[in-house]
Amino acid sequence: MPATFRHAYDVTVRFAETDAQGIAHHAAYVVWLEVARVAYLAEHAGGYRSLQERGLEALTTAVHLDYHLPASFDDTLTIRLRCVDVRGARFRYEYRIEREGALVAEGYTGHATVNRETHAPTRVPPWFADAIATAESPGPS
Amino acid sequence: MPATFRHAYDVTVRFAETDAQGIAHHAAYVVWLEVARVAYLAEHAGGYRSLQERGLEALTTAVHLDYHLPASFDDTLTIRLRCVDVRGARFRYEYRIEREGALVAEGYTGHATVNRETHAPTRVPPWFADAIATAESPGPS
Amino acid sequence: MPATFRHAYDVTVRFAETDAQGIAHHAAYVVWLEVARVAYLAEHAGGYRSLQERGLEALTTAVHLDYHLPASFDDTLTIRLRCVDVRGARFRYEYRIEREGALVAEGYTGHATVNRETHAPTRVPPWFADAIATAESPGPS
Amino acid sequence: MPATFRHAYDVTVRFAETDAQGIAHHAAYVVWLEVARVAYLAEHAGGYRSLQERGLEALTTAVHLDYHLPASFDDTLTIRLRCVDVRGARFRYEYRIEREGALVAEGYTGHATVNRETHAPTRVPPWFADAIATAESPGPS
């Protein structure tokens, strides 16, 4: 497992993502993790559409989030992430959500690649696994 | 155009639908209108799936909402609606959103029936138009 | 920890909660868990507003979900839940989401009670802990 | 009323914003308009927080959207907007949502400034009206 987070994307808390506690609603974080994954795949693996064009979908099989600090409207949050444990039809992401260096939340998501039509589990394609390995390798990315 | 609202469905404001102003976010109302349309179609026209099973989708072509009173977490709101102006490939709904008789919001949505695969405009099927006419007729429904 | 789920609430998948994979988006489940908690508190502990009226908020400190089966538009899902591990300023819920008896997802959420103004951790009030204990006791509820 | 749109902000369609029709859900557009307003205020009027710090909130009193073309996952959309009709406690925005020059949707929103505590209508502050007038004036902005 990589020891560090080599990649990060920013999101800004939308007003629609706040709730009557005056903070970002905890479900919004789940969407931000997805936004970061989409940006990561765009940068490193030809984008999510490159999976879809090969007849694949990546389903989300697990979500875990620990919330440490509340986030507020208009905060800019940095979503650090790494893709780990690519094996068979499964892969995983780990995340740290930070605001100016402070840890706001952390977590992970699990994913399974499936055939787009049948939803049958389908091995992660080699080109995808290779792209992830390159993205997570310690050399210049 | 029918003079009255013969049909109504309730929604309760979810905490996730509130915002940092302490009230229901204005985009949530757009979702509630859809929830009411789905319930209306289930009751009167075999459900939205009956359109899909015939290869149709109903796209939303317009949304209009006037907000009169804020709604709060856990408020139960009554969505009154009527389907009007069914013609060609188009139909319209009108709405009143009430809380214990007080007008919270009102508006309308426009819809177009299209072929599910090609998104080409497709006339509203006669059975659908008939079901709407029956639902909106002044007799016992 | 209670061995069974004594309480359950239903949600129906909204069209707005589906995504381009044709299934309910995984973030929607997080909202449904909250809808179930709100209904649970309304039934057993005077409602979430009874916490707020005493100057408290219950923050969500953790979310975990394992997704087993996709859910589709208009599916009615049963959210089974139990409140466990009430101690100090913390409590936890566990969940099973079912569709006609089949396990769609399962998970848990963690919560902390805080002062509404200062967000300082505040012990769960005795009346609240008692209400939970009664709700989760094996007698007739 | 200004004849042209002098300001624009981009949004990228999130996967969570798509629906089972395979396109962006129509309620997501309402959120994007808000994202554009927030960016506009940040650029031209000290940000939405400058209103809040003076004890004001801007409520949304109306939303209108006409949808012309579907938008898809990962599309980058340009939200063109202008603030018009600032008078008393009210102001309005008009919008064009474009994708590579093609008109995807257009609409307007109405807003009222209110006292943050009492929600009583409160005149738009002169500094705010001046900032809008400057932002919408034909000189270099």
Q: What does it look like?
A:
4 copies of one chain form a homotetramer. The first copy, chain A, is α+β, with helices and mostly antiparallel strands. Helix content of chain A is 26%, strand content 38%. Chain A is built from 3 helices and 5 strands. Chain A has helices at residues 26-44, 48-53, 126-136, and strands spanning 7-12, 56-67, 76-87, 90-99, 102-115. A 5-stranded antiparallel sheet of chain A has the order 1-3-4-5-2. In chain A, strand 4 and strand 5 (102-115) form a beta hairpin. The longest helix of chain A has 19 residues, at 26-44. The relative contact order of chain A is 0.23. At the A-C interface, helix 1 and strand 2 of A face helix 1 and strand 2 of C. Strand 2 (56-67) of chain B pairs antiparallel with strand 2 of chain D, so a sheet runs across the interface.
